[in-house]
């Protein structure tokens, strides 16, 4: 099995940027034009109806489909972690303390430092 390409990818379907027309970025996530279109069609189809309970994507997938999809899920997790590290690095470059960063993440100053400082 090959690893999915590195770089930006849709946080919803996991497709890398070269496989879609456009990615829209948010804090730690991206969504492709295809997923935006799907979301719009779902919203339009359910307008003025009670929202259904969300179901995990895998409820409609066979085992092989899930196995094919999990490298994309892992790549999205790596992308989110890289984005989080970049945000923390920017905050540190602005002089924001580890205590404030930890507080924003709901962890201790020490935990934030251990996760993001790169020091041991």
From TrEMBL:
Pfam families: zf-C4_ClpX (PF06689)
Sequence ranges assigned to domain ClpX-type ZB in this UniProt record: 1-51
Keyword line: Chaperone, Metal-binding, Zinc
Residues binding Zn(2+), per UniProt: 10, 13, 32, 35
Annotated coiled-coil segments of the chain: none
SMART domains in the cross-refs: zf-C4_ClpX (SM00994)
Record has Nucleotide-binding as a keyword: no
Family indicated by similarity: Belongs to the ClpX chaperone family.
Protein name: ClpX C4-type zinc finger protein
């Amino acid at each position: 099995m090959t690893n999915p390409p590195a770089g930006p990818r849709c946080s919803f379907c996991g497709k890398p940027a070269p496989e879609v027309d456009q990615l829209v970025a948010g804090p730690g996530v991206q969504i492709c034009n295809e997923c935006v279109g799907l979301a719009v069609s779902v919203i339009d189809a359910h307008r003025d109806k009670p929202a259904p309970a969300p179901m995990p994507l895998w409820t409609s997938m066979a085992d092989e489909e899930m196995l094919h999809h999990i490298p994309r899920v892992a790549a999205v997790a790596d992308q989110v972690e890289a984005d989080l590290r970049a945000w923390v690095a920017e905050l540190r470059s602005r002089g924001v303390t580890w205590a404030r960063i930890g507080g924003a993440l709901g962890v201790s100053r020490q935990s934030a430092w251990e996760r993001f400082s790169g020091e041991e």
